[in-house]
Automatic annotation (TrEMBL):
Compartments, record wording: Cytoplasm
InterPro entries: FAD-dep_OxRdtase_2_FAD-bd, FAD/NAD-bd_sf, Fum_R/Succ_DH_flav-like_C_sf, Fum_Rdtase/Succ_DH_flav-like_C, NadB, Succ_DH/fumarate_Rdtase_cat_sf
Top EC group: oxidoreductase
Species in which this protein is naturally found: Lihuaxuella thermophila
Keywords: FAD, Flavoprotein, Oxidoreductase, Pyridine nucleotide biosynthesis
GO BP term, example: 'de novo' NAD+ biosynthetic process from L-aspartate
Protein name per the record: L-aspartate oxidase
Protein family per UniProt: Belongs to the FAD-dependent oxidoreductase 2 family. NadB subfamily.
Stated role: Catalyzes the oxidation of L-aspartate to iminoaspartate.
Pathway: Cofactor biosynthesis; NAD(+) biosynthesis; iminoaspartate from L-aspartate (oxidase route): step 1/1
Keyword set includes RNA-binding: no
C-alpha cells in the first residue's frame, strides 16, 4: 500500500478544514484530503452569513446571551465566550484572507436572523456568504508552499496505533487505498450528516463520515440527539433541497398557511423570528393539519433579486417570482449540534485526533444553534486547533499496515440503500420523535447493518451516525431545542445538566 508522511493531516475542505490548514501552514507541511471537488461542502452552500458583534449597539456580551438562550441551558459557557470574543478578530482575519463582506457605505452591511436581538450577520454578495468565504480561502491556499490539497479522495478510516491517531487510510475512484501518516496529528473537519435524512439542505458529501470514523476509532461523541431542522427549504422534491435563508424573514418576509393566516403568532411571541425549532415545529403542525405553508416575501418586492440573488435564481427556476408569488416551504434537516466531543482547543478524547467545525461538539450550540454561528464556530476553533496542534512534538509514524475492505462501487445499489436509511431517519428521528418510533427505527437500522456489504462505506457511516442519533434521542426523555419528544413534550430543568456521551 502506498504510504505518505506529512506533519498535519486535515480531512475536509469546508470553512473548518481550510481555516485549519491555513493556520497550520506556517508550522509545517499540511495535507488536506477531501472527498469531492474542493468547493463541494456545506460551507460553500451557506447563504445567510456569519455572526459577529461588529455593529453599533452590539457587543460580544449580547451575542453571548443570544447564543446561550437559543442553546436552551445546554451550551458550554466557556466555549461560547471564546466564540463571541474571537468573532470580530476572525472577521478581520477572513477579510485579510480575501473575503469581501458586503458594506453599506463605510460600515458593514448587517442582516438580522431569528433569535438574534440585533442585526449582526455579515454576508457576501447578498446570499452567497459561504461561496464568498470558501473561494477566498481556497485562493489563499492554492500555491501555498506548505499545503497540498488532494481532492476526490475519501478518507475511509483513522489509523490508531498504541493509543494515538497516527493517520488515515483513503480510497478513491480508480486508485487503490493510500495510507497518510501524520507526525503531529489529524484534524477531522468532515462537516455534518444531513444526508441521513430524506429531506435535507445538506450537500451530498454530508454522510456523517467523521462521526462514524471517530466512533470506530474509540473517540467520544456527545449530544447527538440534537439535530436542527431548518424551517424553510423550498418545497420542491430534490436532493439537496434549496434553502430559503432565515435572512429573508429577517428582511420582513412572513409565513402564511394556505388559508392566508399569519400562523406564527399562535406559536411564539417572536413570531416569524422565533428560534428555528419552534418555527419548524409550527410549520410541521400546520402541514400535519393538512395546510400547506408559504413564505410571503412580497414586502421585499423588487429588492429581492438584489439582496438574495441566489435564492431568487432558484425560485425562478421553479417558476416562482418571490416579488409577487408565495414561496412554498417545508422544514428539512440542516445541522447537527452534537458531534465528536472536544475541549476548547478541538482535542478529542483520542490522543492526536482533533475535530473542528460541524463534526465537532465544542459546546457552543447546546441544544440548538443560533443562526449564522456555525461558519463562525469553524473559523474560530480552527485557529485554536492549529495553535495547539502545532506545539506538539513529533510522534512515530511507524505503524503496521491496516486491513481494509475493498470499496463497493455500484452507485445504483448504493442509492437504494441510502434512500431507505433516509426514510427511516425522517420517520423515526425527525422533527417530532416518540419512543415507539425510535425503537422501530433502531431495529430497522440494525437489520440494514447486517444486510449491507461492508464495502459500501458511506452507507455504513450513515448507519452508525443514525444509530447514535436515535439512541441518544431515545435516552433524552424530555424536549429541548432541536430535540422534540411527543411523549415527553416538556423541558425538564434537571436534564440541562445531562449529556449523552457515546
Ligand atoms: C444550505 C445551507 C446553508 C447554510 N447557511 C449558513 C449560514 O448562512 N451561516 C452559518 O453559519 N451556517 C450556515 N449553514 C451551516 C454551515 O454551512 C455548516 O455548518 C458549516 O459550513 C460546516 O462547515 P465544516 O467545514 O465543518 O463542514 P463542510 O463545509 O460541510 O465541509 C466538510 C468537508 O469534509 C469533506 N468530507 C466529508 N467526509 C469526508 C471523507 N470521508 N473524506 C474526505 N473528505 C470528507 C467534504 O467533502 C467537505 O469538503 C448552512 C448550511 C447549509 C447546508
Amino acid at each position: 500500500m502506498t504510504r505518505r508522511v506529512t506533519d498535519f493531516i486535515v480531512v475536509g475542505s469546508g470553512i473548518a478544514g481550510l481555516m485549519t490548514a491555513l493556520s497550520l501552514g506556517k508550522s509545517g507541511q499540511v495535507i488536506v484530503l477531501t472527498k469531492a471537488k474542493e468547493e463541494q461542502s456545506n460551507s460553500y452552500r451557506a447563504q445567510g452569513g456569519i455572526a459577529a458583534a461588529v455593529g453599533e449597539g452590539d457587543s460580544p456580551e449580547l451575542h453571548r446571551q443570544d447564543t446561550l438562550r437559543t442553546g436552551v441551558d445546554l451550551c458550554d459557557p466557556k466555549s461560547v465566550d471564546i466564540l463571541v470574543q474571537m468573532a470580530p478578530e476572525t472577521i478581520r482575519l477572513l477579510t485579510k484572507w480575501g473575503t469581501r463582506f458586503d458594506r453599506e457605505g463605510d460600515k458593514w452591511a448587517l442582516g438580522r436572523e431569528g433569535s438574534h436581538s440585533v442585526s449582526r450577520i455579515l454576508h457576501v454578495s447578498g446570499d452567497a456568504t459561504g461561496a464568498g468565504i470558501t473561494s477566498a480561502l481556497l485562493k489563499q491556499l492554492s500555491g501555498h508552499p506548505q499545503i497540498e490539497l488532494v481532492t476526490h479522495t475519501m478518507v475511509a478510516d483513522l489509523i490508531v496505533h498504541e493509543g494515538a491517531c497516527r493517520g488515515v487510510i483513503t480510497v478513491d475512484e480508480g486508485k487503490g487505498p493510500v495510507i497518510y501518516l501524520a507526525r503531529k496529528g489529524v484534524v477531522l473537519a468532515t462537516g455534518g450528516c444531513g444526508q441521513i435524512y430524506r429531506y435535507t439542505t445538506n450537500d451530498l458529501v454530508s454522510t456523517g463520515d467523521g462521526f462514524a470514523m471517530a466512533h470506530r476509532a474509540g473517540a467520544a461523541l456527545i449530544d447527538m440527539e440534537f439535530v436542527q431542522f431548518h424551517p424553510t427549504a423550498l418545497a420542491v422534491e430534490q436532493n439537496p433541497m434549496v434553502l430559503v435563508s432565515e435572512a429573508v424573514r429577517g428582511e420582513g418576509a412572513v409565513l402564511v398557511n394556505e388559508q392566508g393566516e399569519l400562523f406564527m403568532a399562535r406559536y411564539h411571541e417572536w413570531k416569524d423570528l422565533a428560534p428555528r425549532d419552534v418555527v419548524s415545529r409550527a410549520i410541521y403542525s400546520e402541514m400535519q393539519a393538512g395546510r400547506r405553508v408559504y413564505l410571503d416575501a412580497q414586502v421585499i418586492g423588487s429588492r429581492f433579486e438584489e439582496r438574495f440573488p441566489k435564492i431568487y435564481r432558484y425560485c425562478r427556476m421553479h417558476g416562482i417570482d418571490p416579488a409577487h408569488d408565495l414561496i412554498p416551504v417545508t422544514p428539512a434537516a440542516h445541522f447537527i449540534m452534537g458531534g465528536i466531543q472536544t475541549d476548547l482547543f478541538g482535542r478529542t478524547t483520542l490522543p492526536r485526533l482533533f475535530a473542528c467545525g460541524e463534526v465537532a461538539c465544542t459546546g457552543v450550540h447546546g441544544a440548538n444553534r443560533l443562526a449564522s454561528n456555525s461558519l463562525l464556530e469553524g473559523a474560530v476553533f480552527a485557529q485554536r486547533v492549529a495553535a495547539k496542534l502545532s506545539s506538539y512534538a513529533d510522534q512515530s509514524v511507524d505503524v503496521p499496515e491496516p486491513v481494509y475492505p475493498s470499496l463497493c462501487r455500484d452507485k445504483q445499489i448504493e442509492e437504494t440503500w441510502k434512500k431507505e436509511i433516509r426514510q427511516i431517519m425522517w420517520d423515526a428521528a425527525g422533527i417530532v420523535r416518540t419512543s415507539e418510533g425510535l425503537l422501530t427505527g433502531i431495529s430497522r437500522i440494525k437489520e440494514l447493518q447486517n444486510q449491507i456489504p461492508s464495502g459500501f462505506i458511506e452507507c455504513h457511516n450513515m448507519l452508525i451516525t443514525a444509530q447514535m442519533i436515535m439512541n441518544a434521542a431515545l435516552w433524552r426523555r424530555e424536549s429541548r431545542g432541536g430535540h422534540y419528544r411527543h411523549d415527553f413534550p416538556e423541558t425538564i430543568p434537571e436534564w440541562s445538566k445531562k449529556h449523552n456521551v457515546i
